[in-house]
Description:
The complex is a heterodimer of chains A (331) and B (446). Chain A is built from 14 helices and eleven strands. Chain A is an alpha/beta fold. Chain B folds into three domains: 2-149, no CATH class; 162-294, no CATH class; 330-437, no CATH class. With 446 residues, chain B is mainly α. The chains are: A alpha/beta (331), B mainly alpha (446).
Amino acid sequence: MSKAAERVQEAARRFQAARAEIAKAVVGQEEAVDGALTAALAGGHVLLEGAPGLGKTSLVNALSDALGLTQRRIQFTPDLMPSDISGSRILMESADGSRVFEFQKGPVFANMVLADEINRASPRTQSALLEAMQERSVTDGNDTYALDAPFLVAATQNPIEMEGTYPLPEAQLDRFMFKLMVSYPSEAQLGEILERSATNAQPSVQPALDAEAVLEFQSLVRETVMPAHARAYVVRLTLATHPSSEHAPESIRRYAAYGSSPRGAQALELGAKTRAAADGRFNAAIEDVDAVAVWALRHRILLNFDGEADRIDPEDLAREALETCRAARQT
Amino acid sequence: MHKAARPFLKRARMRAALRGALYGSFLGSAALFAALTAGQLMRFPFAFVSGAALFAACVAAGAFFFFKKARAAQPILEEIDRFYDLKDRVQTAYALETDGASADMEKAQIADAAERLSNADAKAWIPRLLPRWAWTSPCALLLACVPLLLPPPAPDPNAMTDDERIAAIEAANALSKDDSEAEQKLKRAETLREAFAALAEAEKRAEESAQSAEALATAQKTLAQDKPLSDALRGAAAEPPPDLAERLRALRDALASNPSAEAVLDALAGIETAAVSEAKLNAIADALRQLERRADPNAAETLKRIQAQKRKLAAAALNSPLQNGSPSGQTAGGNNAGTDLDNNPSARTPADLPEATLQKNAQLILETLENAGARQETVYSSKKESGKPDSEPELLPFKQAALNASRSALKNAEAGAVNAERLPAAYRDRIRRYFKAVEAAARNMP
């Protein structure tokens, strides 16, 4: 067996192992778990949206434990300051008695940062985290401090309590690779949740990977082959979200103001490659692109006035764009 | 990867070609059906050969078109990926090998796809080269041959038989130097009616030419001129001879019975009461010029040839042999004019007889009546009455004889034999002059 085959096989094994470990702590939510794990192993950030108490924080905790990553949690409140995220300079007394400013690293210096209720903080504070997400470094004055590798941000937001919140601007939303919806559990799932959480038997998540393995997985993802026809499909799908594109369906033309940026296309390709690697394959397929399409596009389609007035869900527009591309491929 | 994919590609292309041949066979069957139907109904020659050629061409074209369409490997590889759920492994590996893979992952991908494809069986993917509905193709071919079971169309009852057509062609050849228009019409004639119509028209033209020639001869003799009369009269206009008016009156009297000289007679009208002016002479000269153009000294011979061909064609229609170029047993009494109808067991009913036969009988009857004297009360009739043998002439009143003549000629026919169109030309003018005289007398009456 070639080295590449060994790497792919090992990656698939570890992915399944991490998946199984997360399932110990999170009941159901298969889509959210798959999406979060895929984004993490692709090196992207993920935004989780759901009502309170659905297990968003538990999912992120389990994810970080399964991936063997250090985790910091930042509870976003309206009074949170940017320095509370990135860190600040503190006047310290050195050994020789002199006083110097020392940079104290903030909670962002971790492998995985849980940004809880990110929409409750002010835009200034949000931008501090988002800058770190993009640059993977923190700048303090003239000094730049690189963040740990791998660096992943899992943000959550509550769609119910929107009063007094600062929704992330569209340009900032684009930095999240996937936006995952955490839905209500089914009846059976709810019963299992109670069985697990309301008793003394608390499952513990064992690490299936570590930071180095995660970096190796991310490297393997980037080496995974993306065939030309699948890449062309990614391009067509991305363009289909633009109202002026010839590939766009009627609903996009009518309700969308702007479509996905090239970051969306990158998210599609990386997500597809990650799924292929997790499946033990050397190449991504169009089915992989279809699987991650909604995650990658639902937060990147901006509604126009008609869309807002008719209360159109951007997720529906993303699904229609996907169906249009599928139908075009069939013909 | 190419090696592993080769048997799959080959099998897919064979399937495509066979499928194309099947589609072509359906189209070819339709073409064969059309060709055979045309052959049966419209007597299209070489129907089977052309239909078979069309069928073969459609099958070959279908196979070629679909094979050519299947030459692209990408759709076939996509189908393989879909069938074996290989998640685009095969088409990715094929493209990588075509482009020349260099990275480890690419090489591993190619090896992985090739191994998986090698373990697969092309026959498992395409178990049947022919689709399940292939049995409909021979059924379509059999259906296409159904027109062969159709009965041939009934022959056109009006179409000429071979003998009649030969007689018509011979008549055309015989008249080729005399009347080219009649020759063309006889050669193009499809029915007996058309052939006889052409001969009737030729006969009319010949009669008019003969009458014109006769009228011209009469005029030359009466006016005692050698050179063309029209020029002579124009020359005489300047200095008319003293007896010119008398000669013109004699000319009028001489041409009175000639129907083709009507224009000359009209120009000579009033010659007794008015003086012979220059204008009058020019008018007479113009009329004589028309006569010179129509006159044909050989028209009489032409007329005889035309009539002979008419009799031959009529005989061919009756399927009776001719003797000395004339119908057998023809006499002035016309006693045997009915033998063609009665004694010929193969003759058709009077309704089926060609017009020439009817015309011939009617003409013979009328000539008999004329020769016997139309003013006589009793005449000999050629019409055989029921129960009487052919050798006994029948004495009948003139009216009855004429009625019988018209009945024998016109029975079940659309047009009468004794009407203006079927009378010889000489009779037509006589009747016209009669009515003109009656009309003039009526005008002069107080």
